[in-house]
Amino acid sequence: MGKDSKILKSAEEFLQIFRRGEEFTKSLLKENERLRYRIAELEEALQQSSNEARIKNYEERIRVLEEELASLKERFKKVEEENKDFAHRYIEVEEENNNLANLYVASYQLHSTLDYDEVLKIVLEIIINLIGAERFCIMLIDDKTTELVPVASEGIELEEIPKIAVGEGIIGTVAKDGESFFSDDIVNTDGVDIYKPLVCIPLKIKEHVIGVIAIYSFLLQKKAFSNVDYELFNLLAGHAATAIFSSKLYTQSERKLSTIQGFLELLKEKPKK
């Protein structure tokens, strides 16, 4: 083999080695590209997985916060309702205290005199100012006839009020049973039906009924009676009954005493000669 042949053979071997290197390099580049693509896919998947985890975490936190907000709203609603209830009860208590204070003053006035006419006048003023009645009357039981006889009134002429037998109608039944009557419909009307009061309260001393207070209309329109109203009616009835009964007995005893004294004076007079 000549020298040129050896050179050609060496050149071919070199070229083959070069081609193998070139192919290996291409193979490496392709593998590198594949691996980079795979890495990119993995990074994207990892990022997507991380985002989903974050979104899920945020959704969970939002759900918890919404539940807490709903719970706070419910608690706020309950507290607000309790505050309204407390405010309403406070107004009722304040109103009741004022009425009881007024009733104390009124009862003091009632029991400060034994003059029958003055007591009736005070009772009328109390019913107007404390109860807020516009048209009403006071009727007492006549022990001889067992009839309810009108003795004082407001907004109604006393002469227009008839006598009512005990046990007759609403007023007579209240006088007989000693139980207060409160109409379901308390709307004021233009006319007055003496036999159909809106409210009828017995004047009682313990269990003994001496008369009634019949109310037919109020100064201010009432939609319903409150607990304070019922208490005031009962307290007023008791105090008014005691004051009226005491003053009536005192007036009768004063008259009897005056009659006896007059009779004694006549007996003491010396006969004229």
Would you kindly provide a brief summary of this structure?
The chain is α+β, with helices and mostly antiparallel strands and 273 residues long. It contains four helices and six strands, in the order ααβββαβββα.
Q: Any idea of the CATH class of the largest domain?
A: Alpha Beta
Distance between the termini: 210 Å
CATH fold-type name of the largest domain? Beta-Lactamase
The value of Rg in angstroms is 52 Å
What does the average pLDDT come to? 81
Outline the biggest β-sheet.
Answer: 6 strands, antiparallel
Strand content: 5-15%
Describe the structure.
Helices cover 64% and strands 15% of the residues. The protein is an alpha+beta fold and 273 residues long. It folds into two domains: 1-84; 111-260, GAF domain (Beta-Lactamase, 2-Layer Sandwich), CATH 3.30.450.40. A six-stranded antiparallel sheet has the order 3-2-1-6-5-4, sandwiched between helices. α1 runs antiparallel to α2, α1 (3-110) packs parallel to α4 (227-268) and α2 packs antiparallel against α4 (227-268). The N and C termini lie far apart (210 Å). The model has no long low-confidence stretch (mean pLDDT 81).
